[in-house]
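Tip: read the tokens left to right.
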């Protein structure tokens, strides 16, 4: 090991003992590097920052220093320096980068410097749950501090739908610029190729129909609502429809610890850490969720969506509530396993398809190309920095 490498590692070790907020202030003496872009990915691969990253790489621009911060870096951003988020090294990268990209809120101790820029893409084109300032009275005070600090730092937010655009204007504690454009998955495989990829990755046989279960988390950490009797439902569906189904269970990152308690089998598969939820939605035959915004991705793909919400009344009255009447969605609502079996096994396809079309129009997808537009904006910032 060279002397410089040893000195650098020693410094990072010593800095790691300092409070993170202090690190942002201490390291602010370092110069901002006009070629550095930091992508904040979090626990799973954040699809919107990844789409912007891919555009940056595809541009062929040379001399860039690309960094990805993740909870467990596994190299999902090929070509970037992948580091553990909130480490001393990660904070040093944030302090010295010209631009940050993220799809969620940053901690309250994050400090953006003059001359730096920050794009926040959010992580949903649509959602039934009330969020941010719309449920300010129910949010922890520390989260509100984080959100307000994050919005104050933002130079650009991205809304993929008119629905989210209006929520950002109203409830995000943000008065800055909002880009109206969608993230286009340029690497999206044709449906059959995607199904084959997912089946091979998860060991699902051809001919077996796929039920994707994607429940959201509860703010109180409760898990009693995740009470699907998987094997019983699968047996009943086989008897009712004559077809073989398997479950893929993908939990929210905030409830991922519960995954270990699920009785997995050859017919009940852990999909919590599969890299792309979009691929799972595209591959499934039935999407089951409760209050997750992923149902709208299912509607967009014209998938059969069933809402499993055994705690519907409690959720509506005690937790977040909804941005509209949840019961007006074009999906059957099941509150127990018997109703779930019936909802999967029987539905009016023609009526359901018409209702999904109506909902997609109501949501107001913007179209456009958000990733390319964000890449162009970042390059503008980098070029301005080089001129200073």
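Filled-in amino acids:
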């Amino acid at each position: 090991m060279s002397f410089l490498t040893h000195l650098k590692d020693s410094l990072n070790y010593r800095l790691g003992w300092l409070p993170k907020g202090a690190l942002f202030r201490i390291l602010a003496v370092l110069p901002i590097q006009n070629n550095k872009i930091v992508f904040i990915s979090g626990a799973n691969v954040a699809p919107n920052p990844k789409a912007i990253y891919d555009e940056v790489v595809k541009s062929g621009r040379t001399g860039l220093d690309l960094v990805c911060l993740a909870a467990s870096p596994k190299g999902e951003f090929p070509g970037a320096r992948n580091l553990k988020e909130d480490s001393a090294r990660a904070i040093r990268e944030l302090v010295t980068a010209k631009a940050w990209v993220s799809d969620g809120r940053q901690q309250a101790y994050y400090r953006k410097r003059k001359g730096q820029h920050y794009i926040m893409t959010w992580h949903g084109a649509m959602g039934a749950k009330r969020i941010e300032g719309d449920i300010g009275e129910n949010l922890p005070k520390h989260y509100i501090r984080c959100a307000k600090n994050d919005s104050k730092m933002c130079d650009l937010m991205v809304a993929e739908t008119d629905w989210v655009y209006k929520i950002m204007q109203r409830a995000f504690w943000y008065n800055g610029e909002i880009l109206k454009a969608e993230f286009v998955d340029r690497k999206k495989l044709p449906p059959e190729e995607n199904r084959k990829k997912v089946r091979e990755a998860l060991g699902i046989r051809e001919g077996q129909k796929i039920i994707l279960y994607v429940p959201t988390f509860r703010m109180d950490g409760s898990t009693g609502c995740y009470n699907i009797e998987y094997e019983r439902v699968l047996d009943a569906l086989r008897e009712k429809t004559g077809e073989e189904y398997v479950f893929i269970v993908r939990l929210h990152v905030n409830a991922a610890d519960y995954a270990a308690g699920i009785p997995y089998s050859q017919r009940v598969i852990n999909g919590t850490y599969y890299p792309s939820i979009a691929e799972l939605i595209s591959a499934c035959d039935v999407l089951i969720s409760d209050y997750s915004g992923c149902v709208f991705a299912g509607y967009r793909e014209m998938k059969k969506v069933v809402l499993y919400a055994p705690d519907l009344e409690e959720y509506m009255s005690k937790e977040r509530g909804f941005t509209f009447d949840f019961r007006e969605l074009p999906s059957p609502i099941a509150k127990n396993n018997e109703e779930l079996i019936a909802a999967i096994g029987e539905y009016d396809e023609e009526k359901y398809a018409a209702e999904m079309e109506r909902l997609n129009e109501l949501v107001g997808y913007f179209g456009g190309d958000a990733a390319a537009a964000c890449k162009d904006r970042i390059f503008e910032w980098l070029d301005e920095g080089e001129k200073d």
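The two ends are 37 Å apart (CA to CA). Residues 1-17 have pLDDT under 50 and may be disordered.
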